[in-house]
């Protein structure tokens, strides 16, 4: 009986629990879920935390699991339409946090070539259930991804 | 003689070395330097690291101290023009990294009221010289900062 109880405790009846042993595994699952428009897998990527933050390109700041889930539900409503090529990753990994700055080259279904890159800052947190996404901040790069800051508006930083 | 050497070693002749004991101190110095268009203080805020990342609103991704410094030099060329009110901070602090999601309400010199908010993800790193900025990713929020993701473009995330 004692053993059975222990086994029961260590194997809770949770369905769709994914454990990502590295931040890179979590990031791969994030973009896989994005491409396949899989809401449940997408939300398994995110930390179950009221402090999660998501900023889609040109969108508002979304805070907390409920707002983040609702945004993905709407994005995924039209089904899989995007293919991602992630380039030029800059990664800084701490003990509990991992910061990834990446360029997303996105091929939209029906379009002949990828759109100009989206700059994304992806932040992962080591939780009791492996690495999870804590924040995703995405914004469009200028048409030509370049280092020339004179392309920016003059007055706003 | 021995004491003199020790004193010399512990007090290197470095000018303008600022030490920020907390991420909040570093963030306050970042926005103070921004408001006063003070390039040297701004660069004292940043980690001296080739992996630093800076994304100004609608700008490209800048990587490394040289690109980051050049962008601030250009932004500051016209002198102090901005006042910041930082609101709705979401902070997650780890041992060596601190993640701050903030809304920047910016009053531009000569304009009667603040512009719509800029969403900023600010990331700080604990270095041998206190906390320093590792990344700044800023992008404009929609005209009305809201949680309604339907304001986003339909196809891009």
Task: State the main characteristics.
homodimer, alpha+beta, disordered C terminus
Order of helices and strands of chain A: HHHEEHEEEE
- Radius of gyration of chain A equals 18 Å
Number of helices of chain A: 4
Oligomer: homodimer
The computed structural class of chain A is alpha+beta
Gap between N and C termini of chain A: 65 Å
Which residues of chain A sit in consecutive blocks of at least 5 with pLDDT less than 50? 1-15, 145-155
Greatest chain-chain contact: A-B, 59 and 59 residues
Shape summary of chain A: globular
Number of strands of chain A: 6
Strand adjacency order, main sheet of chain A: 2-1-6-5-4-3
Short recap of the structure:
The structure is a homodimer of 157-residue chains. The first copy, chain A, is of the alpha+beta class. Chain A is built from four helices and six strands.
